[in-house]
Amino acid sequence: MILATTDTARKVSAKRSGAGAPIEKVGSLAPSTASGGKAPRTPRGERTLRKILTAALEEFGERGFNDASIVSITRRAKVALGTFYTYFDSKEELFRALVRDMSAQVRDHVAPVLSSGTGDGLDRERQALAAFLRFAAEHKQVYRIIDEAEFVDPEGFRNHYETTAARIAARLADAAAHGELRDDESPLALEVAAWATMGANVFLGLRFAVWGHSDPDEVAAITNRLLRHGLGVR
Question: Where are the domains positioned within the chain?
């Protein structure tokens, strides 16, 4: 699939406007992270909740959902067992919160690269992929947690991928509107391109950030050439 157009095919030459919504810092809490009605109301409470989520990431990442325990999580977090129930009703609720939190962290890790990136739409996708690969290398547990979410938290699992694909689709549509990508004028074509891009990113992260240690910039550059020129002989 060749997504890129040539510079001479640009339909719009005006510069883009600002990025829009503010970008949350990596590590900030995702909306509705705690169980319903249990969101922290103070900075200290937010720090405690973050400690629980960090401990849960380690516990679920190492032991999986079934073998993980609330007691082990509170020990890792160095908080009392009762403190856990201040924020969560159960291990299942904590897992669902962690899926939302990790999905938000992936988004927030990539967002600054997109807002400050240079070049055309595919250049920004290259930079975004490199940033994601670095995140995956530092947070290998995210793959196990998201995979388990298919069975523990099916709604969160689907939401993670649907919202990620929607963000990619919006970026591709914006690039097409600026003459940087071919505009197929088909909602299905845009959705296919977004899901294909996301699928490639996910498995590139698994192969080259979790299972291997290849240079993120080099992997992203090779992927970018594939998006620009396809597999056919030119």
Answer: 39-88, 91-234
DSSP, residue by residue, the chain: ---B--GGG-S--SPP----SPPPPTTSPPTT-SSTT----SHHHHHHHHHHHHHHHHHHHHHHHHH--HHHHHHHHT--HHHHHHH-SSHHHHHHHHHHHHHHHHHHHHHHHHHH--SSHHHHHHHHHHHHHHHHHH-THHHHHHHHHHHH-HHHHHHHHHHHHHHHHHHHHHHHHTTSB-----HHHHHHHHHHHHHHHHHHHIIIIIS----HHHHHHHHHHHHHH-SS--
Q: Which CATH superfamily is domain 91-234 in?
A: Tetracycline Repressor, domain 2 (1.10.357.10)
CATH 3.30.1490.270 is right for the domain spanning 39-88: no
* pLDDT tens across the length of the chain (234 residues): 445 443 323 333 333 433 333 333 334 555 457 776 688 889 999 999 999 999 999 999 999 999 999 999 999 999 999 999 999 999 999 999 999 999 999 999 999 999 887 889 999 999 999 999 999 999 999 999 999 999 999 999 999 999 999 999 999 999 999 999 988 779 999 999 999 999 999 999 999 999 999 999 999 999 999 999 988 876
